[in-house]
Amino acid sequence: MGLDKIDQLSANAFEGYIVRKDLLEQFRKTYPVPTYVIEFLLGRYCATIIENEIQEGLEIVKRQLQARTVRPGEEEYFKSKAEKEGVVKLIDIITAKLDADSGSYLAYLPSLRLNKVRIPSEVVYENDRMLTGGFYAEIELEYDAAIALENNGRPFGIKNIRPIQLSQRDVLQVLYKGREHFTLEEWKDFLIRSVGMEPSLLSEKAKNVLFVRMIPFVERNYNLIELGPRGTGKSHLYQQISPYSHLISGGKATVAKMFVNMGNGERGLVCKYDVICFDEVSGVSFDQKDGVNIMKGYMESGEFSRGKEPIRADGGIVMVGNFDVDVEHQQRISHLFGPMPKEMRDDTAFMDRIHAFVPGWDFPKLNKTYFTNHFGLVSDFLAECWTRLRDISRISTVLQRIDYGGALSGRDTTAVNKTINGLLKLMQPNPEAPVADELLEWAVKIALEYRRRVKEQQKRIGSAEFRNTHFSYRIGEDGVETFVTTPEIHSENTISEDPLPPGQIWALNAGGQDDTTGLYKIEINAGPGSGVKILNKPVPPQFQESVRYAEQNLYSKNKELIGDRDARMNEFSIQLRSFDASKSGNGMGMAVLIGMCSAILEKNTKGGLILVGQLNLGGSLDMVYNAVNLAEIAVEKGATTLLVPLNARKQLNELSDEMITKINIQYYIDLKDCLIKALLD
């Protein structure tokens, strides 16, 4: 395999902590253990880029896995070996429980089907996670022939265990130092390779899905849901990468196992693990009626109360499941929480506790081509870094740089901040390292989109308190307010209710003898310089004329429209996007003028708004002759407001009652009036 730039960087930055991820393939389905167990051994013997050392290490790993993992049908062989030699080494998941009759602990080794194995109390106390879900370990199992002869004797006993996870204290220092070798984009790709995927085959949206899946590992009490098509690896990260994660298959859970056992006071999964993932979430159920309410309370506060005092825990709740239909159809028949169990699917209070809704449909169906054959961090090192990052916060250092729009409630802000914090810790873990505006804006956009997806479903259920979903942000004092949408709600060629960025506006041309009426979007950027540059190639002659009219009116009415700013000190880059058969751009003069003013003033144009109107050189407005038809098209395209010249008022009296109820018609009398009505307050 040829080493690329990121491989070379990682070899210098993380010597001894990287492993070639395709080495897993020869072991993955051969031995009955998760990926991180195999990588634990690969990291011990193959953490190098020198090929002959890798091959020598592979032989050792192969021998150990062959000798220590119990495949189906080999149970009696291992027991016999223990009886014959007195002790046998194996790799297995170990759980334990207190035997109330004898007051001693008994271990359970599933691969040998042994459920009454002696284990010293001090070993249990040192590794108390074996009392809840258990964990993988290298185990020395002894056999005592003398005990075997006793009545009800238990000859098998645990002599020693070594948990399969890293225990170094300085892992974060290694991570901080290694991160310095990478640019942001290189680090993103290396992080994706570290969880076994090949970034070059993933879209930006798919990469973002993967990064948000990682957040519960680095952020305390992070609640996440991911629904989407089957086969996209939704549970892979929670099952294969980290020993600090626990997967509940089929969604069945007990209150005692999840929270606390009232019989013996034993703490549950949320106290023992960083992440608890419910797979196949449509089947989530508890053994007690109040189970969902206890979980809801825990997701809100990180506390649950069973007995006298409240108990705090910081395990995050992750729920993953499948749509049986595509996302568009799911939205037509229900809402995006539709596949959830009935106790949760229409409960807006439960939804409010979800910090991010991950769009599983943005991730491809996995096949072997998506798995990388390059180097990444060894899983146990990565998992240890992630669990230590939970003690660190990055959000406090950047909060003063972010200004959220008025649509965010207190819970929205909390959710968004937790997502930003998690993404920043993943991307720039060292709390001393600065966070660039580019990185901060990337994290803010993802956080707002993934939280807004939750809010949109609450709105669909019909709760009035959730009706304002226009999430926006501003970075820095001079930043422009930017609105963040959830792409699945609107197709590109329909008009959403979200305000548009400065310089952008939707418009309809009036049509005519040689041209049909059609929907256009004008996109304009203003920068230092002078003049106008139309980006369309070739430029439609009629659109060029519309731009010329708009430019001349802007210069002649500069003070009236944009105050003390000088339009001639700006170069305008203009793009016309056509969404119908009409391509000429005829009659776009007013839309271009408003777009130019919006770009200079750095003000958003109103959401849901569509503009009609053609200018002439003197600044007067052409007559609109087909206003009723234009209003009907505006409704069809999803507009909520039609902004038209006053000369169309009489015609619009003929608009049907049905159409009148579907659109807000606003009239303008001149250029300034139009600008005031088009821009967001």
TrEMBL record:
Gene Ontology terms: biological process: proteolysis
A Pfam family this chain is assigned to: BrxL_ATPase
Sequence ranges assigned to domain BREX system Lon protease-like BrxL N-terminal in this UniProt record: 13-143
Keywords: Hydrolase, Protease
Database matches in InterPro entries: BrxL-like (IPR014061), BrxL_N (IPR046838), Lon_proteolytic (IPR008269), P-loop_NTPase (IPR027417), Ribosomal_Su5_D2-typ_SF (IPR020568), Ribsml_uS5_D2-typ_fold_subgr (IPR014721)
Top-level lineage group: Bacteria
Residue span(s) of domain Lon proteolytic: 521-679
Keyword Nucleus in annotation: no
One GO MF term: serine-type endopeptidase activity
Name by which UniProt lists this protein: ATP-dependent Lon protease
